[in-house]
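User: I want to check something. If I give you two sequences, will you return the structure for each one separately, not as a complex?

Assistant: Yes, each is folded on its own. Here is the first sequence with its structure:
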Amino acid sequence: MARSTLSASTTSPKRPTCTAATNRVLKYAKLKPNMVELDGPIHTVGIDNFTEAAYLHRHDKTYYLTYSRNFPEETAYATAPSATGPWTFRGKIMDMNKVVKTIHQAVIDFNGKSYIFYHNDKLPTGGEYRRSVAVEELHYNPDGTIAFIPQTAEGPAANPAPGCK
């Protein structure tokens, strides 16, 4: 079973730390401070066509749940006012790979920009069990939706820290 960690915060009682065990059904549970034991019941979340690879992040005051949907997989997302929902489906943000049937992602912020890391089959001899890691810049539209992200061979432009310029 694939495991993805949904971690909104490990220090704020207002934003609980959660874990999710996934494969066709999204589930989460609050963790105790030791990050090993459950601190309450396991919750099931109904996400249409959810497959696996749940990843939670927050931008401004909105929570974003990116995940793989359908099979072969594409990357989609939903938004919510809290880390536990209720979730509103927003759409597809990345197409499926041409050879590899899965696509798993993570979203990070670095030097004032957002990036999505994912896997594909683009390196020589790439395939289902020979995946390569890729990264693209992720853009939020003025209304908070995520713009569609095409997979590129180039990746994002350089974004050095101020001290490295």
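And separately, the second sequence with its own structure:
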Amino acid sequence: MRAFVIASMAAAVAFTAAVAQASPVTMQEVKVPFSFTVNGQELPAGTYTVQHDDALGTGTLFLKGEKASTFVMTAPIAGSQSPADDASFVFAKDGDNYRLTQVWDGDANGHEIVK
């Protein structure tokens, strides 16, 4: 049992060190003036930093806000034009609610949110 606990602690330390050393490939800011949902999680209005980190996988984005953050799984959007020159979010409006459907970076690379 003690060997298992020590091995688990060593794995946790190694994982923490790997995450701490990984640097985001892409970091961009997007300002959202209203609350919205992504994969069922409600996020408040605010400024969000979009981080794409190869250590998390090619289809994983981290949206970090001032009051809330979340990971989202995405799929690339091929052959499309960015709706803006800078990083941007695309939403679907359902009544008074907004749902994040796409994330675009400043290089015209689109990412569709996987449900």
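Because they were folded independently, the notes below concern the second chain alone. Strands lie at 26-32, 36-38, 41-43, 46-52, 60-65, 69-77, 88-94, 97-104, 110-113. The CA atoms of residues 19 and 56 lie 9 Å apart.
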